[in-house]
Amino acid sequence: MDANESEVTTLVPTSSMSFENQVLILRAYVILSDKGSKPIHYKKVVSATRLARTQISGVNEFFIGLGLIKRTEKGTYLPSKELVRFYSKDLGNEDYEKLRKPIGDSTLFSSVKGFILIHGSATESEIIDYLLEESGETTRSRAKRSLEW
Predict the structure, then answer these.
(1) DSSP class per residue in 12-59
(2) If DSSP codes are grouped into helix, strand and coil, which group holds residue 148?
(3) Which residues of 70-80 are buried (b: 16+ CB within 10 A; e: fewer)?
(4) Residue 72 in 3-state DSSP?
């Protein structure tokens, strides 16, 4: 088993923060890492975003699972090339198309896609129930945040 196989993918962020704040965190990783050229400790993201440490740490594993950041060492992360290309100096002009590949390759995407293929279709509520069951999470708003991606 290689190192990637031993990591558990997080299907649901442990913090139910807004999608906009999740994007804020990702922007901070890109900017603070000098557009992906140097790893950044999440505490610097906490300071720059003025969000709680628990909020940042609560989405980091989720972002790793989506392929948007990677851990370089404990507490230190580097944004993916796709995330760097996603970034725009003009807030609100981020290019979400740049995130299609890492998110399309993620366990979250393949889990939801598989569920829909098995059932032929699914409502948002059914997918949320499935994500809660698969993740062991109990907070519906957190599972719904996953679907926003």
Answers:
(1) S-SS---HHHHHHHHHHHHHHTTTTTS-EEHHHHHHHHT--HHHHHHH
(2) helix
(3) eeeeeebbbbb
(4) strand
Handedness of CA 21, 82, 63, 55 (dihedral sign): negative
Write out the H or E segment, with its range, that includes residue 77.
strand 76-79
Domain ranges of the chain: 3-148
Per-residue pLDDT of the chain (149 residues; tens, 9 = 90+): 334 433 446 888 877 788 899 999 999 999 999 999 999 999 999 999 999 999 998 899 999 999 999 999 999 999 999 999 998 777 778 888 899 999 999 999 999 999 999 999 999 999 999 999 998 888 999 899 898 88
Q: Is 78 helix (H, G, I), strand (E, B) or coil?
A: strand
CA distance 124 to 127: 5
Q: Bridge-partner residues for 79, per DSSP? A: 69
